[in-house]
Design brief:
Strand order of the largest sheet: 1-2
Structural class: mainly alpha
Largest sheet: 2 strands, antiparallel
Strand content: under 5%
Helix content: 55-70%
Number of helices: 22
Shape: globular
């Protein structure tokens, strides 16, 4: 049998499964739109492990993208420069632009998802090795350049490319998850996503920051103190680059995609390039999707200042950045257990009840975070941070993580439940893209405007009109014997504004979210004519 004939037959089988009535298509799943089928992991344990590790790799660039701002903060970069670097997270919010290409152009012989997964991960590996050879000088930490300013623009470009490749890998993995797992186990894809990304983020951020710190490594890991940490950003990137290359080669050789449709798995028809974008347009026209899109794009406004600025403010207040990262180590068991524990409450027909329940608590933590930042300078004496401060900070982070994962696992479970498998990874990617965009644009905006909302003044009576808004005015103030002091910190203005907006959003969104999750499955499906 020729390859083209076999491909047409596979497409025909998939299309016939998709083009039937909704009730017929799901007759093995339920007797009603919201009925549940118990999971059975037999035969899927290895697939779950593979998905977990692929999502773990995806979390490494995300963790590194969180570590770089901490390194730049020690060089005195402005919050507007931090906002510029935050653009590196935008590929995960823009991946919808090329998701239909990933979904429709592939080698049938090599595998629909592997056609993009393998090249993307190989490029990530090579790019990490390249970054490892140059990143020290771009950060201003090269030999003889310790006082140099970071090349924020170039760092942003390099890590933007890295995250672009990681986002492409995410598209492929999201689509593969829908067909790699049996239909009754597909909800576990959200658990693999959350646990795997958390583990990868932990290695890319927490482990790196701890091993990069001379203070932590000398105190806990060395008998003879050394001036540097155990790893540098360059050696860490180089190591993970080789890990990416090794794992990718193993997946390419050992893991095969399903070629002949198994009735226990969701069908995945062969969509053409133009039909893929047409389906994307059809999805966006669904009334339910439009409401959900607006909810996702605005859901994180209330938490943006707390999530994006608080950590940097603590570093400015005198808390060592390495200690903040090391403190996060204690949260790792919680971050691994939470998605598993929460998934027990989100695998039913109303996962968004958990999502709604978490919002008021996250808004309350805005006030707690603001109070912590406000009192931190007065609690630090000569650079020494008391133990009780770290205990209180750990308690705050623990409670914050619980609410964060309640929302994340709940929304991911809802995405998996409503995604139309007839569209492959494009539907799931659309939903994830909207959720990511709802996080990235408020975070970037919060970082960008915090300096504009901050009011400073010169203490010298000779320059009462000097607001220290530029380096020249700062120099003039110091030349007159004064110092620039913060009269109103824009961080607190943002926190108050975000909290008010978050409460208004909750009042508006609660009834609409409850209405969305009781809709029948067919209301989330695209028109069958487009799929043929």
């Amino acid at each position: 049998m020729s390859r083209s004939t076999r491909r047409r037959q596979e497409t025909s089988r998939s299309s016939s499964a998709v083009n039937g009535d909704v009730e017929e298509q799901h007759n093995t799943m339920s007797s009603g739109p919201n009925a549940e089928v118990p999971s059975d992991l037999r035969g899927d344990r290895c697939n779950i492990a593979i998905l977990f590790f692929l999502y773990l790799l995806q979390g490494i660039p995300m963790g590194l993208a969180a570590a770089i701002p901490m390194l730049m903060q020690s060089h005195g970069v402005s919050y507007k420069q931090q906002a510029e670097f935050s653009l590196v997270n935008w590929p995960f919010s823009l991946k919808l632009l090329w998701a239909p290409i990933v979904d429709s152009i592939y080698s049938n012989r090599f595998g629909r998802r592997k056609s993009w997964l393998i090249p993307a991960q190989l490029l990530i590996g090579f790019f990490m090795i390249f970054l490892g050879a140059n990143v020290d000088s771009w950060l201003g930490d090269g030999k003889g350049e310790k006082e140099a300013e970071p090349c924020v623009g170039f760092l942003t470009l390099m890590f933007f490319i890295l995250n672009f490749l990681a986002a492409t890998q995410d598209i492929a993995v999201d689509g593969w998850a829908l067909t790699m797992l049996k239909r009754r186990n597909v909800a576990y894809a959200s658990t693999c996503n959350s646990v795997g990304q958390s583990a990868g983020y932990f290695f890319g951020y927490v482990v790196f920051m701890a091993l990069h710190s001379p203070d932590i490594t000398n105190r806990y890991l060395r008998s003879v103190p050394q001036p540097d940490g155990l790893v540098t950003i360059s050696s860490f990137l180089n190591m993970w680059g080789w890990i990416f290359l090794t794992v990718t080669i193993l997946v390419a050789i050992l893991k095969r995609e399903q070629v002949v449709h198994n009735p226990e798995h969701e069908p995945e028809p062969d969509l053409g390039f133009y039909r893929a974008y047409g389906l994307l347009w059809d999805i966006s026209k669904l009334p339910s999707i439009r409401v959900l899109a607006f909810i996702l794009l605005t859901a994180k406004i209330g938490f943006s200042a707390c999530d994006a600025v608080t950590g940097l403010k603590l570093v400015d207040a005198g808390v060592p950045k390495e200690h903040l990262a090391f403190l996060a180590v204690l949260l790792v068991p919680l971050q691994i257990v939470l998605p598993i524990a929460i998934s027990k409450y989100t695998t039913g027909s109303r996962p968004l009840d958990v999502y709604i329940a978490a919002v008021p608590y996250r808004l309350f933590f805005n006030l707690v975070a603001g109070a912590i930042v406000y009192f931190t300078p007065s609690l630090i004496t000569k650079g020494d941070v008391p133990l009780y401060y770290y205990i209180g900070l750990l308690l705050f982070y623990t409670c914050h993580q619980i609410t964060l994962y309640m929302m994340f696992v709940a929304i991911m479970s809802f995405f998996v439940r409503i995604s139309d498998p007839a569209v492959g990874g494009t539907y799931m990617t659309l939903l994830n893209t909207l959720a990511n965009m709802g996080t990235t644009w408020p975070s970037t905006l919060s970082l960008y405007i915090v300096d504009s909302l901050t009011f400073r003044g010169c203490s010298s009576p000779l320059l009462s009109n000097n607001d220290c808004s530029s380096p020249l005015e700062v120099q003039d103030c110091e030349a007159a014997g004064g110092i620039c002091t913060v009269q109103l910190d824009g961080y607190y203005v943002e926190m108050a504004l975000c909290t008010v907006l978050g409460l208004l959003w909750l009042w508006w969104a609660r009834p609409r979210i409850q209405a969305l999750q009781i809709k029948e499955v067919r209301e989330w499906k695209v028109r069958r004519q487009r799929i043929r």
